[in-house]
Amino acid sequence: MGSNNKKIEQNRNHNNNSKKNYSKNSYKNNKYHKSNDNKRDGNNTKSQYSRENRHQNLYPDDYSITKQQIFNFDDMTFSDELDTSFVENKKKKKEKIIKDLNKSYEQDKIRRESIEKRRKPKLRVFRFIIFLFVVILLLGILAFCIYLLTRPVEPKVVTKEKEVVIVDDNYLFLGDSITEFYDLDVYYPDMPVVNSGVQGNVTEDILDDMGKRVYQYNPSKIFLLIGTNDIDQKLSIDDIVSHIKKIIEEIQKNRPYAEIYLESIYPVDEERPAASNRTNEEIVEINQELEKYCKDENITYIDLFSLLVDSESSEVKIKNEYTKDGLHISDEGYEVITEEIMKYIERK
FRET pair for 244, CA 20 to 30 Å: which of 210, 287, 299, 310? Predict the structure, then answer.
């Protein structure tokens, strides 16, 4: 028992001596480093350790390495052992961060998928509405184009009282040789005039060819002079008047916006061969019937008979200056006719 106590006491003394030696050595080392530091500050050129060597000794490159001294009681010595616990901690921390990030990514992915699922129906509805709008717009444009292509030729102006149709100016002269020999380009220069007179025509000739003689020109105003050849062919007055009425009715039916001007049959000189079977008495009777018809049907009647007849003669006949052969009209006669018709052309 006494020997054991003695050994314990020796161990304690040895440990105390070791600690004193270690502290003394540590103090010497610190004193040595301080003196070296003072010398290095005083004279850098004579320093035993350069700044770089001192930095490497005190601060190793691998900062992850730390040392811990462990005392071995059996050997009575100190040993150095690396402390790597911080590596494990860092690894665990990194794994936790990665795990949290993955979890966050998954949650964000789920959230975006949920938003996308909610957006898809709305997007489909929106696209359908846009598609429907485009289809309706295209159909509207197509319908408008069809309307422009198929609308009537005559432009319409609608007022509160009635519908007014404006037709482009196009003046048609319809009749027989008296109309055909009427040089419209001379008497109506720079005006939209059409000569649809044919030599030898009677009322039935015009009725049989209304399309080419009238309708194709789509006239705004029509000046009709016909009937003298019907008298020459011995048609009755009633038939002649009836045929002229039929011509006017057909024009009104197929070209309702054309203004019709019915001219009286011109007087003749019965004593001259060109008059043939025509008589002024029949002409006057026919003109009276035509004037009455125009008044009843609100059609414009132009009395050219009174302007061309020789008022100074005791007989009813055309004035000599106004005719070439007793039937057809001279230049002087056409000037009188033109002056009267211009009043109706200029009328709006």
Answer: 310
